[in-house]
Amino acid sequence: MAEQGGLKSAVRGPLGRTLLFVPAVWLATRYALPLLGGWLASDDWFSMKHNLASAGLEGTLYFALALLGWSCWLAYNEQRWQQFLAPVWEFFAWKHPLRAAILVVSPLAAGAMALAAAGGGGGPDMFNAIRHPTPPDAFSHMENPFRHPTADMLEQFDAQLSSGEIVVNASTEDELVAYAGVLAAGGVSNDADRRRAFERHSIEQGRELFMVNCRPCHGTKGMGDGPMAAAQTRSPADFTGVETIATLVEGAVFWRVKEGGVKLPREGGPWESAMPRWELDLSDDEIWKIIMAEYDLAGNAPREPEKLGGH
Ligand code: HEC
Question: Residue 280, Cβ neighbours under 10 Å: how many?
Answer without folding.
Answer: 9
